Amino acid sequence: MKTAVLIYFVLLSLSLYGQGRTDSIVAIQADSTIVPFSIIEKKRGKAVSINVGLNMAMRGFNRFVLKDEYAQINLRSMRNNINTLPVWDTNRFTTNLAGHPYHGSMYFNSARANGFEFYQSSLVTAAGSLMWEYLMETKPPSHNDLWATTVGGTALGEVLFRWTDLILDNRTTGLERAGRELLAGILSPTRLISRLMNGEAWKTGRFRGNLLYRSPYLLELYSGETMTVVHSTDANLWSTTLGTGLQYGEQYGELVEKPYEWFQTTGEAIIGNEGFHLTQMSILGLLFNKVLFQNENTWVTGGLFQHFNYYDIKQTGNNNNNSTTTLYISEAAAIGPGVIVQKKKNEVKTQFGAHLSGIILGASTSDHFKLEDRDYNFGSGFSLKLSSSFQFRQKLLFALYAENYILFSWKGVNDYEKLKNLTTDEIDFLNVQGDKSSVRLHLLGLNMKYRLNENTHLIFRARHFTRHTVYKYFPNVDHNSDEFFLGIGMYV
């Protein structure tokens, strides 16, 4: 598709359009008073050069160190890709729906850390993704990679940008400074590269050096033991879980002026015999909102939200059935309206939320489609999320929530026998979402937290997962599992 290069330069031009300065930036003193900070110029050349350099470095590593076949690019492969329509690829779930959004977040933050606003940075992300898909691989460009990298990368990128802005502090020195820079660099490598290039990584001063107004936040770290009950095998599975959650911004009584001035995010991983395994990433980011009702105790707001959800939960059978199944749920590119109702009275705070989203790119477990690293179906559809919470005297939090997804795999396999004899080129251009099917995924959860002191609390969580898949060529499949978590958390 020859228009791909044109689209790349159009997106890049749009992202670079405008005056060379951003809105006024402020820095925060130790006593939290706000002090005017210098207005930052958009460093257009630096943002673009970091993205191009990132793609070239990753391509070089894949080609010369890993010696991957798909990295052996040349002018012929580039020309072929430019004239090729995108396909659905066969990479593993983690690569496509966690790795590519993280890759996209690096594109996003190369722009964000150099003075670009949210939507401009999104266009830079799209341009970086197009460059990678059409010029940096011998394989054909991928539908799912373009969506996951651009839209998922934008969600993850803004969250990581605001998170690193809370971590970085130009007033610190020594080991503390090195630790802050390293942690921020792990979360957002291109922001660290930007700070190294302009000398901010070692510069000290009277102020933190934030690029954003310092918003209220609540950061939680927790760990504990998780027991999973798989009903199809009657297996009880134990694992050690590590998690973190961040609630950013104050929504009660406030209107957001820019995207993601309010968001909530959660990440979880387990540590077991197979090492570190990411099991969940969830983001709900507010793009803009409007007050629907307000009085002294009640606040009702409606808005437009961006959704990103990723679940990769391994479920192994018991001693008599060692087969492994995986619960996949992905909502990599999704957006939709939502309503949040908050009420405060005396020492009790309640909240109710309802969110509907249209899913451009999602994915779920397949019982039949197994090709190279693919064991899941891509799809598009809808999600509905409901939540309610009750907090008593800052001591006890009780929350109920439900997540419901409906995904349709429109372009599926017609002849499964042919899958067994496909050549590598035929697999690359097979271009199917998986099985022709529709799936309903449900998550029903209960959370309870009991505060032991100002920073520490006990956590109990119970979750029920249900999957009902309707196949065109196979019998329907139902899968149910329960999960129980008991652990301890702390606010930092």
Low-confidence stretches: 12-39, 317-321
Give the helices and strands as they follow along the chain: HEEHHHHHHHEEEEEEEEEHEEE
CA-based gyration radius: 23 Å
Q: Percent range for helical residues?
A: 25-40%
Would you tell me which CATH topology of the largest domain applies?
A: Lipocalin
Overall 3D form: globular
The CATH architecture assignment of the largest domain turns out to be Beta Barrel
Largest sheet: 12 strands, antiparallel, barrel
- The order of strands across the largest sheet is 3-4-5-6-7-8-9-10-11-12-13-14
Number of strands: 14
Determine the strand fraction and express it as a percent band: 35-45%
Average pLDDT reading: 88
Distance between the termini: 50 Å
- What number of structural domains do the residues give? 2
The CATH top-level class label of the largest domain: Mainly Beta
**Tally of contiguous helical segments:** 9
Query: Structural class, from helix and strand content?
Result: alpha+beta
Give structural attributes:
41% strand; 2 domains; 9 helices; single chain; 492 residues; 12-stranded antiparallel beta barrel; globular; Lipocalin; 14 strands; two-stranded antiparallel sheet; 28% helix; alpha+beta
